[in-house]
Amino acid sequence: xxxxxxxxxxxxxxxxxxxxxxxxxxxxxxxxxxxxxxxxxxxxxxxxxxxxxxxxxxxxxxxxxxxxxxxxxxxxxxxxxxxxxxxxxxxxxxxxxxxxxxxxxxxxxxxxxxxxxxxxxxxxxxxxxxxxxxxxxxxxxxxxxxxxxxxxxxxxxxxxxxxxxxxxxxxxxxxxxxxxxxxxxxxxxxxxxxxxxxxxxxxxxxxxxxxx
Length: 212
What we know:
The protein has helices at 9-28, 37-59, 71-74, 77-87, 109-133, 138-143, 155-172, 177-211. By secondary structure, the protein is mostly helical.
Protein backbone atom coordinates (compact mmCIF):
# COMPACT_ATOMS: atom_id res chain seq x y z
CA UNK A 1 0.00 0.00 0.00
CA UNK A 2 1.55 3.28 -1.09
CA UNK A 3 1.45 5.96 1.61
CA UNK A 4 -0.48 9.03 0.61
CA UNK A 5 0.99 12.48 1.12
CA UNK A 6 0.92 15.88 -0.59
CA UNK A 7 3.95 17.27 -2.41
CA UNK A 8 7.44 17.69 -1.01
CA UNK A 9 10.09 15.25 0.13
CA UNK A 10 7.59 12.52 0.94
CA UNK A 11 6.01 12.76 -2.51
CA UNK A 12 9.45 12.35 -4.05
CA UNK A 13 10.22 9.41 -1.75
CA UNK A 14 6.99 7.71 -2.80
CA UNK A 15 7.75 8.24 -6.47
CA UNK A 16 11.38 7.13 -6.40
CA UNK A 17 11.06 4.15 -4.05
CA UNK A 18 7.67 2.84 -5.18
CA UNK A 19 9.03 -0.07 -7.23
CA UNK A 20 11.26 -1.21 -4.38
CA UNK A 21 8.42 -0.91 -1.87
CA UNK A 22 6.23 -3.15 -4.01
CA UNK A 23 9.01 -5.76 -4.21
CA UNK A 24 9.30 -5.78 -0.43
CA UNK A 25 5.52 -6.02 -0.06
CA UNK A 26 5.51 -9.12 -2.28
CA UNK A 27 8.15 -10.77 -0.09
CA UNK A 28 6.15 -10.00 3.05
CA UNK A 29 2.73 -10.79 1.56
CA UNK A 30 0.31 -12.60 3.84
CA UNK A 31 -2.81 -11.68 1.94
CA UNK A 32 -3.74 -15.14 0.68
CA UNK A 33 -6.77 -16.95 2.06
CA UNK A 34 -4.64 -19.87 3.26
CA UNK A 35 -2.41 -17.92 5.68
CA UNK A 36 -1.79 -19.93 8.85
CA UNK A 37 -0.68 -18.90 12.31
CA UNK A 38 2.77 -20.26 11.43
CA UNK A 39 2.88 -17.95 8.39
CA UNK A 40 1.94 -15.06 10.65
CA UNK A 41 4.62 -15.97 13.18
CA UNK A 42 7.24 -16.13 10.41
CA UNK A 43 6.12 -12.69 9.22
CA UNK A 44 6.56 -11.31 12.74
CA UNK A 45 10.01 -12.91 13.05
CA UNK A 46 11.09 -11.24 9.82
CA UNK A 47 9.73 -7.86 10.89
CA UNK A 48 11.47 -8.23 14.25
CA UNK A 49 14.75 -8.94 12.46
CA UNK A 50 14.19 -5.81 10.38
CA UNK A 51 13.04 -3.40 13.08
CA UNK A 52 15.14 -4.35 16.11
CA UNK A 53 18.54 -3.32 14.66
CA UNK A 54 17.12 -0.23 12.95
CA UNK A 55 15.50 1.04 16.13
CA UNK A 56 18.71 0.46 18.08
CA UNK A 57 20.66 2.60 15.60
CA UNK A 58 17.97 5.29 15.42
CA UNK A 59 17.89 5.56 19.22
CA UNK A 60 21.59 6.47 19.05
CA UNK A 61 20.87 9.57 16.92
CA UNK A 62 20.28 12.40 19.43
CA UNK A 63 19.15 14.85 16.73
CA UNK A 64 16.26 12.79 15.37
CA UNK A 65 13.82 14.11 17.99
CA UNK A 66 14.49 17.66 16.77
CA UNK A 67 12.66 16.72 13.56
CA UNK A 68 10.32 13.93 14.67
CA UNK A 69 9.39 14.97 18.19
CA UNK A 70 7.94 11.57 19.14
CA UNK A 71 10.73 9.55 17.51
CA UNK A 72 11.55 7.71 20.73
CA UNK A 73 7.97 6.47 21.05
CA UNK A 74 7.72 5.55 17.37
CA UNK A 75 10.96 3.57 17.44
CA UNK A 76 9.65 0.98 19.85
CA UNK A 77 7.87 -1.43 17.51
CA UNK A 78 10.31 -4.33 17.97
CA UNK A 79 9.18 -4.60 21.60
CA UNK A 80 5.58 -4.94 20.41
CA UNK A 81 6.58 -7.70 17.99
CA UNK A 82 8.46 -9.47 20.79
CA UNK A 83 5.23 -9.44 22.83
CA UNK A 84 3.30 -10.86 19.89
CA UNK A 85 5.83 -13.62 19.25
CA UNK A 86 5.81 -14.71 22.88
CA UNK A 87 2.00 -14.74 22.76
CA UNK A 88 2.25 -17.08 19.76
CA UNK A 89 4.44 -19.53 21.63
CA UNK A 90 7.98 -18.35 21.01
CA UNK A 91 10.14 -18.53 24.13
CA UNK A 92 11.54 -15.11 25.04
CA UNK A 93 15.04 -16.60 25.12
CA UNK A 94 14.68 -17.39 21.39
CA UNK A 95 14.25 -13.74 20.39
CA UNK A 96 18.01 -13.29 20.40
CA UNK A 97 18.35 -16.06 17.82
CA UNK A 98 16.20 -14.34 15.19
CA UNK A 99 18.38 -13.22 12.23
CA UNK A 100 18.70 -9.45 11.84
CA UNK A 101 19.29 -7.18 8.89
CA UNK A 102 22.56 -5.27 8.64
CA UNK A 103 22.09 -1.56 9.36
CA UNK A 104 24.70 1.14 8.65
CA UNK A 105 25.56 3.99 10.97
CA UNK A 106 22.69 6.52 10.83
CA UNK A 107 24.23 9.40 12.75
CA UNK A 108 23.23 12.07 10.21
CA UNK A 109 19.63 13.26 10.05
CA UNK A 110 18.97 12.74 6.31
CA UNK A 111 20.07 9.11 6.48
CA UNK A 112 18.11 8.49 9.68
CA UNK A 113 14.98 10.01 8.13
CA UNK A 114 15.36 7.89 5.00
CA UNK A 115 15.40 4.66 7.00
CA UNK A 116 12.63 5.90 9.27
CA UNK A 117 10.50 6.61 6.20
CA UNK A 118 10.59 2.90 5.34
CA UNK A 119 9.71 1.93 8.93
CA UNK A 120 6.79 4.36 9.15
CA UNK A 121 5.45 3.44 5.70
CA UNK A 122 5.36 -0.20 6.82
CA UNK A 123 2.77 0.66 9.48
CA UNK A 124 0.28 1.39 6.71
CA UNK A 125 0.74 -2.14 5.37
CA UNK A 126 0.46 -3.53 8.91
CA UNK A 127 -2.93 -1.91 9.40
CA UNK A 128 -4.20 -3.40 6.12
CA UNK A 129 -2.79 -6.81 7.05
CA UNK A 130 -4.56 -6.72 10.43
CA UNK A 131 -7.90 -6.19 8.69
CA UNK A 132 -7.17 -9.06 6.30
CA UNK A 133 -6.08 -11.55 8.96
CA UNK A 134 -8.69 -10.75 11.62
CA UNK A 135 -11.42 -13.01 10.17
CA UNK A 136 -8.90 -15.73 9.22
CA UNK A 137 -6.83 -15.89 12.41
CA UNK A 138 -9.19 -14.40 15.00
CA UNK A 139 -7.71 -16.01 18.11
CA UNK A 140 -4.14 -15.17 17.06
CA UNK A 141 -5.01 -11.56 16.28
CA UNK A 142 -6.87 -11.22 19.58
CA UNK A 143 -3.72 -11.97 21.59
CA UNK A 144 -0.89 -11.09 19.21
CA UNK A 145 -1.55 -7.98 17.14
CA UNK A 146 0.22 -5.30 19.18
CA UNK A 147 2.52 -4.54 16.24
CA UNK A 148 -0.10 -4.63 13.49
CA UNK A 149 -2.28 -2.25 15.51
CA UNK A 150 0.55 -0.21 17.00
CA UNK A 151 -1.02 3.15 16.12
CA UNK A 152 -4.63 2.09 16.66
CA UNK A 153 -7.02 4.51 14.97
CA UNK A 154 -4.27 7.08 14.46
CA UNK A 155 -2.34 5.37 11.64
CA UNK A 156 -3.13 8.00 9.01
CA UNK A 157 -2.65 10.86 11.49
CA UNK A 158 0.75 9.55 12.59
CA UNK A 159 1.79 9.12 8.96
CA UNK A 160 0.68 12.68 8.19
CA UNK A 161 2.67 14.02 11.16
CA UNK A 162 5.80 12.18 10.06
CA UNK A 163 5.37 13.37 6.47
CA UNK A 164 4.81 17.00 7.50
CA UNK A 165 7.82 16.99 9.82
CA UNK A 166 10.09 15.48 7.17
CA UNK A 167 8.92 17.95 4.52
CA UNK A 168 9.43 20.86 6.94
CA UNK A 169 12.96 19.68 7.71
CA UNK A 170 13.87 19.49 4.02
CA UNK A 171 12.44 22.95 3.41
CA UNK A 172 14.57 24.59 6.10
CA UNK A 173 17.96 22.93 5.57
CA UNK A 174 20.58 23.15 2.85
CA UNK A 175 19.89 21.81 -0.62
CA UNK A 176 20.79 18.17 -1.03
CA UNK A 177 19.10 16.89 2.12
CA UNK A 178 16.21 15.44 0.13
CA UNK A 179 18.63 13.64 -2.19
CA UNK A 180 20.29 12.04 0.83
CA UNK A 181 16.97 10.99 2.35
CA UNK A 182 15.91 9.34 -0.91
CA UNK A 183 19.26 7.55 -1.24
CA UNK A 184 19.02 6.31 2.35
CA UNK A 185 15.46 5.04 1.90
CA UNK A 186 16.51 3.32 -1.33
CA UNK A 187 19.46 1.70 0.44
CA UNK A 188 17.16 0.49 3.22
CA UNK A 189 14.67 -1.04 0.79
CA UNK A 190 17.37 -2.73 -1.30
CA UNK A 191 18.93 -4.27 1.82
CA UNK A 192 15.51 -5.29 3.12
CA UNK A 193 14.45 -6.93 -0.15
CA UNK A 194 17.71 -8.86 -0.47
CA UNK A 195 17.50 -9.96 3.16
CA UNK A 196 13.87 -11.07 2.87
CA UNK A 197 14.52 -12.91 -0.40
CA UNK A 198 17.47 -14.70 1.19
CA UNK A 199 15.44 -15.71 4.25
CA UNK A 200 12.62 -16.94 1.99
CA UNK A 201 15.04 -19.13 0.06
CA UNK A 202 16.45 -20.52 3.32
CA UNK A 203 12.97 -21.28 4.67
CA UNK A 204 11.96 -23.01 1.42
CA UNK A 205 15.12 -25.12 1.44
CA UNK A 206 14.46 -26.20 5.02
CA UNK A 207 10.86 -27.07 4.17
CA UNK A 208 12.03 -29.15 1.20
CA UNK A 209 14.40 -31.13 3.39
CA UNK A 210 11.64 -31.75 5.93
CA UNK A 211 9.25 -33.11 3.28
CA UNK A 212 11.86 -35.01 1.26
